[in-house]
Amino acid sequence: MCAPFFERTMNIGLYFGSFNPIHIGHTRIAQVALQQQRLDCVWFMISPQNPFKETDGLAPEHHRLAMAKLACAELENIIAVDFEFSLPRPSYTIATLIELNKRYPDYSFSIIIGDDNLQSFHLWKNVEHLLELVRVIVYPRNAEKISLPETLRSFADQFTFLTGDLLPISATEIRALLKNRQPTIHLLHRDVLQYIQENKLYSDSET
């Protein structure tokens, strides 16, 4: 069992993102993080609004949550949660972590980010406090070796890196394919694709 109300100490990996839409690359990263970092569970933290991203083309949050739940339905120890939906917006990671620690004081949290976020990570809100609360698990977006930028060297002990083939897939490219009615079955979980089609998401007739 893997849920926010589970009553024992757990090591939780928090994978924040818009997941617009969630795809097989996302779930592969979650599975690798579970295996390589000895996590008890990964929570897909569906973000209602990312302070660093525009909201144009962003599907409504209830749709993104529903798709993430479909993608996780058959995965062990990986779930999608709406924890940030009730928090003030825009959603800052530090505020979410403070609230998580209040609600689950016995849990240990890590956050999962892509290596493209490393260069700007020092700009995250209250980053020093954030790194007192969590470890950071970094996944590669390409085959190049990852290294910490100079701005984060003093926090090196808080960072760890995933290895292996993590399927570098872009949600932006998937949305473009969907809009142009190009095949995406090799990029999306089957139930997610069906949900997108049924709800007319990422198309000119989007609702």
Going by CATH, the homologous superfamily would be: HUPs
The CATH architecture category equals 3-Layer(aba) Sandwich
The number of helical runs is 6
Structural class: alpha/beta
Low-confidence stretches: none
Task: Let me know the average pLDDT.
Answer: 90
Number of domains: 1
- The CATH top-level class label: Alpha Beta
Rg over CA atoms, rounded to whole Å, is 17 Å
CATH topology: Rossmann fold
End-to-end C-alpha gap:
35 Å
Share of residues in strands:
15-25%
Secondary-structure map:
Elements: E1 11-17, H1 24-37, E2 41-46, H2 61-72, E3 78-81, H3 93-103, E4 108-114, H4 127-133, E5 135-139, E6 159-161, H5 171-179, H6 190-198
Structure in words:
It is a single chain. Helix content is 30%, strand content 15%. The protein is α/β, with parallel strands linked by helices and 207 residues long. The protein has a single domain, classed as HUPs (Rossmann fold, 3-Layer(aba) Sandwich), CATH 3.40.50. It has a six-stranded parallel beta sheet. The radius of gyration is 17 Å and the shape is globular.
Features:
6 helices; 207 residues; alpha/beta; 6 strands; Rossmann fold; six-stranded parallel beta sheet
The gist of it:
The protein is α/β, with parallel strands linked by helices. 30% of the residues lie in helices and 15% in strands. The chain has a 6-stranded parallel beta sheet with strand order 3-2-1-4-5-6.
